[in-house]
Specification:
By secondary structure, the protein is mainly alpha-helical. It has 12 helices and 3 strands; from the N terminus they run ααβααβαααβααααα. The protein has a 3-stranded mixed sheet with strand order 1-2-3. Helix 6 runs antiparallel to helix 7, helix 8 packs antiparallel against helix 9 and helix 8 runs antiparallel to helix 12. The longest helix has 28 residues. The radius of gyration is 21 Å and the shape is globular.
């Protein structure tokens, strides 16, 4: 019933979005309907996931490590990984009358491996957008981070360049919007525990966004920057999910902080303090994965143009489905 009601409520929204573009040429009409349908699919899927979670029996409350057969608890996990427990904080027990949901406990090894795969993905998407190959106007803009966009928007406002200001504000808003979506799907995260009913829908939305980004590039016409906005939303979702679920151990979409940490920890190790040696190894692996993704993206975008972004869409879809069947 919730899904039926939500679907009925989406009809006037979709109609409004279509009517708002009536003044444009006929080439923009299919695109507005296309984005409206994506919103409808994402919302319907989210409602279905939460309805399913509300009806989940108590038997689905087991916590498992996908890479092992031994059942573990968050407390024992943090006890095995003291180097990481301080970064994200210990799990907090909250009393609730709701039926416990199915959760999957992440081991440190699993978190790092998944983080490397997603770091490669964000490096790949960032390289595709930053190279300018997919833009007819050779627009070069990062999608996995918005540090530069904040400064460029300020420079645009100061110099009176409204086009530069507006473009960078849209990039910031897109990344912010992706993080907002992730927070809505997973409002009460616990470090190193995954709630599939919240994380899977978030990754599904990211998959749809990357598919739409690929389609916009291939379709052409109109603004050739829309694929950057869609990719930035997907990267915002990814970075938010990985950050909150690992207590900021895995930050998979921007690497200013990790670069600083690697330098700090290396300096400590060289002076004989090896307390953060494990973090140094993990952050180095993440950084190399991100760099490799950017390296691979150059050849991929030159060979496959917009279709190269379908790799990211497929990866998000695989992770969304995998969490539901684990």
């Amino acid at each position: 019933q919730k899904i039926a009601t939500a679907t009925a409520n989406l009809s006037p929204i979709s109609a409004a979005l279509s009517n708002s573009n009536a003044a444009h040429d006929t080439d923009t009409m299919p695109r507005s309907r296309y984005y409206s349908s994506l919103v409808g699919i994402a919302v319907a899927f989210a409602l279905a996931a939460h309805v399913q979670a509300d009806a989940a029996p108590a038997s689905l409350t087991s916590r498992r490590d996908p890479f092992g057969t031994k059942k573990v608890t968050p407390q024992s996990l943090f006890a095995r990984s003291p180097a990481f427990s301080r970064r994200g904080g210990d799990a907090i027990a909250v009393e609730s009358d709701e039926t416990p949901k199915k959760t999957i406990v992440l081991s440190t090894r699993t978190a790092v491996l998944a983080g490397c795969a997603l770091a490669f993905n964000s490096g790949y998407v960032n390289g595709a957008c930053l190279s300018g190959i997919l833009s007819s106007s050779n627009t070069k803009q990062a999608a996995a981070a918005v540090t530069g966009a904040w400064t460029n928007s300020a420079l645009g406002a100061a110099s009176g360049n409204t086009a530069q200001f507006a473009f960078n504000v849209k990039c910031i808003a897109s990344y912010f919007g992706g993080s907002l979506i992730a927070g809505l799907f997973n409002p009460s995260p616990i470090p190193f525990e995954i709630d599939p009913s919240g994380v899977s829908p978030a990754f599904l939305v990211a998959s749809l966004l990357m598919y739409a980004s690929s389609s916009v590039v291939d379709k052409g016409g109109g603004s050739d920057r829309e694929y950057i906005y869609l990719a930035a939303i997907a990267c915002g979702i990814q970075n938010s999910v990985t950050s909150v679920l690992t207590g900021n151990l895995v930050r998979s979409a921007h690497f200013s902080g990790i670069t600083s940490d690697v330098g700090t920890f290396l300096g400590q190790v060289l002076r004989g303090n090896c307390a953060n040696a494990l973090k140094l190894k993990v952050f180095t692996m993440l950084a190399l994965s991100f760099w490799t993704g950017g390296f691979v993206s150059y050849s991929a975008t030159r060979a496959y143009a917009g279709s190269s972004l379908l790799f990211s869409s497929a990866l998000f879809l695989f992770m969304a489905g995998g969490l539901l069947v684990v």
